[in-house]
Amino acid sequence: LQLFVSMSADGSRFDPLVVVELTSDTKEEAISWLLSRIRDTQQNGGAELQVEQLEQLGPGVSAQEKENPNLFLVGATRQRLLSGAEDLGLFKEFHDGSMRGFTCANKHNFKDFQGDGDSFLSMAECQYIIKHELDTLRARDETHVPGHQQVKLYPGKSIIRRLLSKGILIQVFPLHQKEELKRLSFSWYQKVKLSFQPLDDIRHYYGEGQALYFGFLEYFTFALVPMALIGVPYYLFDWEDYDKYVLLAAFNLVWCTVILELWKRCSASLAYRWGTLSRKKAFEEPRPGFHGVLGFNPVTGREEPLYPNTKRQLRVYLVSLPFVLLCLYLSLYIMMIYFLMEGWVLSVHDEEPTFWTGILCFIPSVIYAVVIEVMNLIYRYAAEFLTEWGEYAASSCQHRLFSPQFNFFNCFASLFYIAFVMHDMVMLRQSLATLLITSQILNQFMEAFLPFWLQRRRNKKMIRKVQIRKTLEDKELPLADQVRLEADMSTYLGTFDDYLELFLLFGYVSLFSCVYPLAAVLVVLNNITEVYSDAFKMCRVFKRPFSDPAANIGVWQLAFEAMSVIAVVTNCSLIGMSPQVKAYFPESDMQLILWTVAVEHGLLAFKFILTFLIPDVPKHIQINLSRLEFESLEALKKKVKPGRFNQSRSTLTVNRANSSSNE
Amino acid sequence: LQLFVSMSADGSRFDPLVVVELTSDTKEEAISWLLSRIRDTQQNGGAELQVEQLEQLGPGVSAQEKENPNLFLVGATRQRLLSGAEDLGLFKEFHDGSMRGFTCANKHNFKDFQGDGDSFLSMAECQYIIKHELDTLRARDETHVPGHQQVKLYPGKSIIRRLLSKGILIQVFPLHQKEELKRLSFSWYQKVKLSFQPLDDIRHYYGEGQALYFGFLEYFTFALVPMALIGVPYYLFDWEDYDKYVLLAAFNLVWCTVILELWKRCSASLAYRWGTLSRKKAFEEPRPGFHGVLGFNPVTGREEPLYPNTKRQLRVYLVSLPFVLLCLYLSLYIMMIYFLMEGWVLSVHDEEPTFWTGILCFIPSVIYAVVIEVMNLIYRYAAEFLTEWGEYAASSCQHRLFSPQFNFFNCFASLFYIAFVMHDMVMLRQSLATLLITSQILNQFMEAFLPFWLQRRRNKKMIRKVQIRKTLEDKELPLADQVRLEADMSTYLGTFDDYLELFLLFGYVSLFSCVYPLAAVLVVLNNITEVYSDAFKMCRVFKRPFSDPAANIGVWQLAFEAMSVIAVVTNCSLIGMSPQVKAYFPESDMQLILWTVAVEHGLLAFKFILTFLIPDVPKHIQINLSRLEFESLEALKKKVKPGRFNQSRSTLTVNRANSSSNE
User: What pTM does this model have?
Assistant: First the structure.
């Protein structure tokens, strides 16, 4: 944390944590107004943070005339950060080992609070606090940004958000810590070793959301190993015997259920340890971006913008649904083109089979796989755009409501068509393998190497300069260069795409596991490299992301479970359709189907009971959570005074909202 | 509450609330020891309640030499009841309209607390508090009950429970309030009217568990009315058209899901209003009956007997499972006998069909229905016995784990056999109708009229005496007669049987709704009389039960939902098997089955999505619950002092457990 300690204008200690970049043509009045609002005390509706212009902290080696001077560094005093942690309701380990909401009054009872609490909050937490304070910096009586008549404001509107949407503010991002990052990346991916990922360190540096993703990636990889091991002999010995496929499929289906249930426990353990399980999302402030009338949050009593719920839902359905339907239609259309190409290539191959036409047979699948990836990308950006336009209140994944469904359809529609309409198992296997392998290669390339290469090219000049300087005098990069280097890095858009990739891989493994047992092997291999490429991309390619205090993998748990239910249906149908199984019921198809349906229902019931029997949260954590709840209720009982609720509501909101509520 | 106010031995005011009856041959030492333990202060490990012998409160008109003198009345001071309510964590309406855990220190902030809080707690709550205090009256250093060497005790053992199990204590029951009961029964079932049941009054008099049952009964009845209305024309016009049956079945399946989901919301509203939704079952003391080593509850920090969890589960599986399997075997065996009888009767009827053989055809079904009811009863008592023997810790319905399953199998096995093995729709309809009607008649008879008649006969003499006395001088019955009259009434065994009956009725309606649409009509009619007979039996036949602060209908919600899932499968199969539907697919059975399966999967998916989309708790209650949680956490933050957890644990347990923990 003390890496870039410098003195601010008024002489107090200043640790830069977050960078705010404004366009170079921002008016002077706007800048000084923004800085004064950031520096102003909370009583006056300010954020009470420290902010300094980058230039004034000493020029970098690469300083040039044409560079943007409007880079500002934001920091805060230790006391301000601690009170911010209290406002955010961060949970920390208490002296008795339980997790408790942090309060300044009680700070010395927290386990890691030593001395004046210098290392109590991790840098990621400090940056999250500053981001939250900046986001909730709201307009008071300003009708527009000084110097920019066209940028309107109204009481309660988030200033940062309005500046961002109008393009005056380019970006807000947290600074890396070179030393920490070096340590982390060494233990994470540079050391060749057979150990688990340093999840606690990842959490410490990137926050809980990232750490949970990497935890899930690791868990998922290990969980697939048994499926991969069982799948290998099927491929090696070319077992086409459906007796064995039935066993494989049955094992896979039960296994999928078990691993998803156990992950919930795993995730609860991690989130409890990190303090996010007890912290309630519902008590958070809403997404600051959003405009609406100010009102009181019915739960916390805090003043914040409210959005009429029905209006929001109407927007979701009126805009998202037609959009998704259009995308689905496009996706179907492209699938049909693929089948036409496939048919044409096969006819060419059948006419005159040579080595080259054999290769040609794979071309349509590969092209189709690429097109699918491109469509996924387009859909993703379109959905992002729609979200911005819709400006939903909650910061949850609501705006990506239809994304997994669309991607599922996009990736698997052709496979379903081949399996259940064309009944062509050979083509299914071939198509599955091509899609899986192509998408894996594409993904690895798109995710890590392409951004890295782009960034290298962009920063080539600066890096060279820096290298010279580095070898010349000091091993440390000056702050100004460091900041400018990071400002040019790509922005990490969150774990959504990473989860989506795993979700689709899970689909390839589970949906048709009895047709292509090797899928699990391929996915395990992919995941092992994925750990490294994801780690590399987090450490080297992207700007540091703000941490996200997630308590679980959210909607993805549901998505994976839905996938495992669909997998039961597809696998049972595939096995029921196989000629070997049909041979058992030579006299009647009806018997065969009835048996298939009965087995399928049995498996579904078994899955359901299993889900019910395995508790979602380990016993000892359940006890700790209940104890917290019990003690809270006891504390409330003890504490209550007449008129207490209204009183606490007003003290909570007086700081940041008193000016805007009188309007 | 002031009905039987009298003066106790030491001259203070005494409201009798609960009756404790010991056998007439109990030793004097045992009685005086028990009374002193009940009267002793909480610091000394007593219950700090008032207790008086019935005889000393004035003789009744029917006083005779041979009557049991060991009837004791238990009461408590108002202050003691309020502190008991705090110990139990009762939730009451706060002055701001939210529900809060009651505390004595803060009592004047509760809405209904007026003056010295005379009518703050309902009599049912007072009786529940006294029962709880009596149940948690634990042995200290006694090794046996004084005067009864054979009745062993050990530190921490519930005294009342040991006395009950050894037969020294005959019963503990709460007293009725004549005036209240008269008012309640008038508004409940004596007035002929078309209005809802007085649920709040029922809750006030009998507690939340009873009120929720009657609320569910009423809701269920109203919810079935649409199904009944749609079913009537099918019966009247003899529509055998399966097109229409498909519509009926589809409506029924969706309707079942919707009503079960909406009930959750209804139940949450009721339970929130009554303060049981916020009160956590987990924070309750365990079932007092249970013997085990004393330890600390990991959640509340209170000292209480702990039971090793694995041992308990082992018991459940090692004992209950073979028992259930045996019962299932018996049930199957009896079903086979029924089919033999049915076959024999049919052959008689076919040989020489007369009016009498036509009647004879119904006899096996009726006999079978009676046998099913008898088997349900036997199973029920056997399960009860096993529970006593097993002595599980929690007071929840765990011990009745397999009961709904067994009853389901017992009632519906024959119908499944007829439908899916014999494929005989005419017999299915006839069998269903006979079973449904017979069981309804039997239940109404067994539930209300038989106990009433038995009790009338038993109390004839006393009632006659009382009638004379009543006409002679005063309209009020003396306390002693009142108590003896109630002591002889039958004991109400809880809502389990009532729910079970509704569960089976729901099965008759939903499982085969497309075969016998009139079932819903019969069930609606049955339920209307059921409301009256249940109300009558609660008010006139049984002893007043102790109230049970339930927050929902518990495991029955799950049972009803499972039934509605099974109903989707059965109805789809029945319709798929019907000749009319088969006629649509003349060329291939396979097409038919595939369509049936597809429709069934669609319906299941639709049910699942519906369950997911309809929130379980209404929005405004969700907000209130979140607010309570938020404010509790805030209170905990504010309050925490060093070493606080250990401190609060010790103050909580010092009262009742300090004596036994030192052993």
Answer: 0.83
